[in-house]
Design a protein that fits this description.
Layout: E1 2-4, E2 17-20, E3 24-25, H1 28-38, H2 43-46, H3 48-51, H4 63-68, H5 70-77, E4 78-80, E5 85-95, E6 105-118, E7 122-133, E8 141-150
Parallel strand pairs: 1-4
Antiparallel strand pairs: 2-6, 3-6, 5-8, 6-7, 7-8
């Protein structure tokens, strides 16, 4: 995990990767829990037998499950010690560029795209989140995440 002492310490990092997370295993139980939470029980996610004959040969994680792991990735990628809170401000471009087969492991890489000061000494930062899958040469997801950090 990369550690930054203060919020302004990230400003010169624009254009650079500021952290890469640990790996997170995508088990069928996690996929099923996500399906229950969202009501998306499409067979490619939850029916292992049918999925064997489907386009991916196994069940795959929901794209939004992959995206929802952003806080998990963030927790192990980098830390801003001088920040009392980080708040999800939203997302810009989001693409699910490759399927995530059950049993895969994912990790997130955070490239700082923009750093803008906000009132009170904080900053709004835009990151390119690239989600790497250990079972694919292509990223599983690429998204622009906007996070506000407060002192």
């Amino acid at each position: 995990m990369n550690i930054y002492k203060t919020i302004p310490d990230l400003q010169p990092m624009v254009g650079e990767v500021v952290g890469v997370s640990e790996w997170a295993l995508i088990e069928q139980s996690r996929i099923n829990q996500f399906a229950d939470a969202t009501g998306d029980h499409q067979w490619i996610h939850v029916d292992a037998e049918r999925a064997k004959t489907g386009p991916f040969g196994t069940t795959i994680a929901h794209g939004f499950l992959t995206l929802s792991l952003l806080p998990t990735f963030l927790a192990t990628a980098f830390k801003v010690e001088g920040s009392s809170a980080g708040v999800n401000y939203g997302l810009d471009k989001v693409r699910f560029t490759a399927p995530v087969p059950v049993g895969s492991s994912l990790r997130g890489s955070f490239k700082l795209l923009a750093w803008d000061a906000i009132n009170g000494g904080g900053a709004q930062m835009k990151f390119e989140l690239t989600v790497e899958c250990d079972k694919s040469t292509k990223p599983a997801c690429i998204a622009e995440s906007i996070i506000r950090f407060f002192p």
